[in-house]
Amino acid sequence: MADSFATDVKNELAHAENARACCAASELAGFIRGCGSVTLASPPRGERTGMGLKLATENAAIARRYKALIDEKYGVGARLMVGEAAAGRRSHVYVLSAPPSPKTDAMLAETGIAYMDGGERRLAAGFADRTIKRKCCRKACLRGLFLGAGTVSDPERGYNFEIVLASESAAAAVRRLLNSFTDMHARTRRRRGSHIVYLKNSEQIKDALTLMGAHAQLLKYENVRMLKEIKARANRVNNCDAANMEKSLGAAARQLEAINAIERRDGLDSLPGELIDTALTRIFHPDASLAEIGQLLNPPIGKAAVSARFRRIEEYAIGEG
Predict the structure, then answer these.
(1) In this structure, are 268 and 169 located in the same domain?
(2) What are the per-10-residue average pLDDT scores of the chain (321 residues)?
(3) Can you tell me whether residue 186 is helix, strand or coil?
(4) Please, are residues 245 and 237 in contact by the beta-carbon 8 Å criterion?
(5) How far does CA 228 lie from the centroid of its chain?
(6) With contact defined as beta carbons under 8 Å apart, do 77 and 32 qualify?
(7) CA-CA distance, 51 to 100, in Å (whole number)?
(8) Residues 94 and 142 sit within 8 Å (Cβ to Cβ)
């Protein structure tokens, strides 16, 4: 149950369409950064080292999405295998593999995962500028990252959006990507050997869902968030009312003590006429507010005037009246 919202988001995103043709490479770049591993193959003498690719996910819809993307866009012919779940996990793991080939090399180059350096193919540390130059491509890249290595808490339980990465440099690149969007303030931390890029602000998580294209789940998220805010506001009002009531009752008790002290010492007749009326009204209405006391007097007076009268009564009680 705890992962159901994240799973629903991923299932929706697994069927999302990219805005432009350029976004497919950017999304794949994000997915590879999130859950991919590049393998090196020993080449025949005189040839360059070849690179293969493995991608692992526990979501069948995600595996089908990227197999189709790799096959249709790059003609690689990726192989999809189903493996046993890791210890403590219930679901299967779906592994996509692309063997070393010129087509795989071209795919890794276009996605910015690998580049040529002095005749040798090397792995890039961050995102290639061309894959995140346009906003539409940055959104697609974020979607791929989330599908590969992301999770988001059920809003009923709290607000947390994470992308879990293997290296500090990858986390720094993902943080920069997220913070390139308006009003995003992603942070990083380490947890059990992984590097986490995360959001805790509910508004920013809402924006992340919007950017990735999870519009159906966004509506559910907003409904829950709105109900939580309404309940929180009601609790604050109730707490405020309770605090005001406690303050009012405390003041009333203090006023009655002053009135009783005057009655024991000198009698209420020792007070000016308007204070006698006010003191008697308090005695007969011990729970009334200042405003209610004012309306019970004849003629009625305002809350501030009632408060001033009780201050005078308290002064009389300590002999300062």
Answers:
(1) no
(2) 80 92 94 86 56 92 95 91 72 89 91 83 85 94 96 93 94 96 95 95 95 94 84 74 75 87 87 89 85 91 92 86 58
(3) coil
(4) no
(5) 13
(6) no
(7) 5
(8) no
* Ranges of H-type helices in 51-167: 60-69, 102-110, 135-149
What is the DSSP code (8-state) at residue 234? H
CA distance 203 to 184: 9
Nearest by Cα to 101 from 144, 130, 70, 141:
70
Question: How is residue 308 written in tokens?
Answer: 């001033």
Residues 253 and 120 in one domain: no
Are 76 and 136 in the same domain? Answer: yes
pLDDT of residue 49: 58
Q: Residue 104 contacts by C-beta under 8 Å, 6 or more apart in sequence?
A: 50, 51, 52, 53, 74, 76, 98
User: Are the C-beta atoms of residues 78 and 96 closer than 8 Å to each other?
Assistant: yes
Q: How many domains does the chain have?
A: 2
Residue 87 lies in a domain: yes
Cα Dmax for the chain: 117
Task: Give the domain extent around 30.
Answer: 4-213
Residues 239, 243, 246, 248, CA torsion sign = negative
d(CA 197, CA 170): 10
State how far the Cα of 163 lies from the Cα of 171, in Å rounded to an integer: 8
Q: Which of 192, 194, 220 is nearest to 206 (CA)?
A: 220
Is the dihedral angle over the CA atoms 52, 89, 151, 200 positive or is it negative? Answer: negative
Between the alpha carbon of residue 259 and those of residues 252, 277, 310, 317, the distances in Å are 10, 12, 9, 7
85 and 209 share one domain: yes
